[in-house]
């Protein structure tokens, strides 16, 4: 069964939709404050579908991600009790929240910058920054640099690879997809063991 190939083709189809940029912007905003799906799942196929628009897509993703990060900061600063069931003991993001809080205590600005590239969900960092009352301007600056670095790198590499990159991804998408599933299961198992 070619599950990931079908998903890849479906996502490429969505990326060519006339409203795809609005969807990308909304996803980028939501992922930084409350939604679990990273914007890369739309940024990548949109860049492959229209490589000449790669930098526009990266800029849009960065801008909306930073604005969404500000919303996450506000949630952490003003409404932490709303997300307490998710980040409190036994919550879905409890371990990630503890790790993010530790990073803030140790590195502050640099924790947010590095979080832009981290596999830990970015919303955990934005909410943690607000909850720990990190200075707002350095938070926004670190978010812009970290997230921008990630999204411009992804879009730039895919645009540079062009149609050949799309062909390579299509050829290996099943292997990549199932490898990521295995890695996610192993990571989940290791976290649960601790």
TrEMBL record:
The cross-references to InterPro entries, in alphabetical order and at most eight, read: DedA_domain, VTT_dom
The reply to whether Chloroplast figures as a keyword in the UniProt entry is: no
What residues form the membrane-spanning segments?
54-75, 107-125, 137-160, 172-191
Start and end residues of each VTT domain: 55-157
The reply on keyword Transferase is no
Give a Gene Ontology cellular component term annotated to this protein. plasma membrane
Among the Pfam families in the record, one is VTT_dom
Keywords carried by this UniProt record: Membrane, Transmembrane, Transmembrane helix
Q: What is this protein called?
A: Membrane protein YqaA with SNARE-associated domain
